[in-house]
Amino acid sequence: TYVIAQPCVDVKDRACVDECPVDCIYEGDRMLYIHPDECVDCGACEPVCPVEAIYYEDDTPAQWKDYYAANVNFFDALGSPGGAAKMIEQTSKLDHPMIAALPPQNQ
Ligand code: F3S
Ligand code: F3S
């Protein structure tokens, strides 16, 4: 899977969402999260992020390794909805606890 990391927090450019062919990039309150089971590893999202927040899981920079778990665990209570657009009302009020606890980022 691909992973969204810290540079997305409080930025949420959303360019990635338009590129994803399977609509597996879900919008949280402070960042977006890639569904690990729905992502087909096409890689289309990675080059369009203007702040370079997106990485293939094995290529996530060391200081952001925790974001793998943040992306995966964001979906613990959501399961596999099969599409981000229809979930936006619900997911955009949520964040992984690690993200929710961060002070303002990337301002
Ligand atoms: Fe975030 Fe970059 Fe997408 S800032 S919303 S990962 S385009
Ligand atoms: Fe979508 Fe990016 Fe995965 S475009 S399929 S989230 S690699």
TrEMBL record:
Keywords: 3Fe-4S, 4Fe-4S, Electron transport, Iron, Iron-sulfur, Metal-binding, Repeat, Transport
4Fe-4S ferredoxin-type domain span: 30-59
GO terms, molecular function: 3 iron, 4 sulfur cluster binding; 4 iron, 4 sulfur cluster binding; electron transfer activity; metal ion binding
Pfam families in the record: Fer4
InterPro entries: 4Fe4S_Fe-S-bd, 4Fe4S_Fe_S_CS, 7Fe_ferredoxin, FdxA_Actino, RnfB_subfamily
The record's free-text note on cofactor binding: Binds 1 [3Fe-4S] cluster.
Cofactor(s) it depends on: [3Fe-4S] cluster; [4Fe-4S] cluster
Highest taxon in the source lineage: Bacteria
Keyword 4Fe-4S: yes
Keyword 4Fe-4S attributed: yes
Function description: Ferredoxins are iron-sulfur proteins that transfer electrons in a wide variety of metabolic reactions.
Protein name, UniProt field: Ferredoxin
Source organism of this protein record: Nocardioides baekrokdamisoli
